[in-house]
Input
Amino acid sequence: MSDNSPGAPVVHGFPHLDTVRSAITALYRRLSPDGVHTYGTSLVPADAAFSDGDDLHLGAQRVARALVQHLHLPDARMIVGFRTMEHAASVELTAGPEYFIELNDRFRNHRRDIGAALAHEITHVLLHRLGLEFPGTRDNEILTDTVTTYLGAGWLLLDAFREDATSRQKLGYLTPEEFGYVLAQRAFAFDEDPSPWFTSPQAYTAYTKGRAQALHDLRRPPLTAAGWAGRRRYAKDRRYAQDHPGTAADPGVPYAFEPGGEGLRVSFPCPTCHQRIRLPVRGRTVARCGLCRTRLECDT
Output
């Protein structure tokens, strides 16, 4: 698990957004919409609470058990230890049923973030059992952060983000705003508001920025919720595609026009699962995503 080096600047913005969206698509494909919706309730703060008065190892085991149950790993036993290491945490992925998680020694004195570190590592176990992975360490870690967050435990990772004039901390590979984006995507899908759970002011700010980006996904043409400027640009691009069939799509817009046997079609990403949807260009219509089953009101 990535751990921002003390004193190193925290990367902000949305540099990994394409991989994050691909991770959400892969999750829906692997679990199905029904499977994803079995994670409809996020881990509650009390299940990850860890006070200075708690026994270190017993407390870590308690939080690990809560995360195992939340992530639907009933037969997985986590053995948690602490040692000096470069990264925040690591897990030994085996056939099970026991998994060994090691946390950085600094968590002995920063117990409030143990739940965040464990959430990421236990999601590694879940993905290992599901056989879901991306090629390359970077993309696979982004997949892990995204799945942890989308399945209701990753708000802990964002809440572990703290930044002030003298110190900074961030866990995971996603930027704070990207964690906020995935949390907002989950919030829209499950009608959930995670903002009361944040203890870090910086985490709340990052969530609001991520939520704004997620709202933008819901307001892009050909969705009827698109704003005036987007609709105007879409109409202009549609006329050009009709007059110049086969022209390559502008990479700066989310939609693309394609000639078909029955006329022009438009493809665009589902705002929920990000799988591309293809519709005939025929005006107002209601579509349903074939992957996540989201109902979409469109004006093609």
In short: Strands lie at 77-83, 89-92, 98-104, 162-163, 168-169, 256-260, 263-269, 276-280, 284-288, 295-299. The first strand starts at residue 77 and ends at 83. DSSP finds nine helices and ten strands in the chain. Residues 17-36 form the longest helix (20 residues).
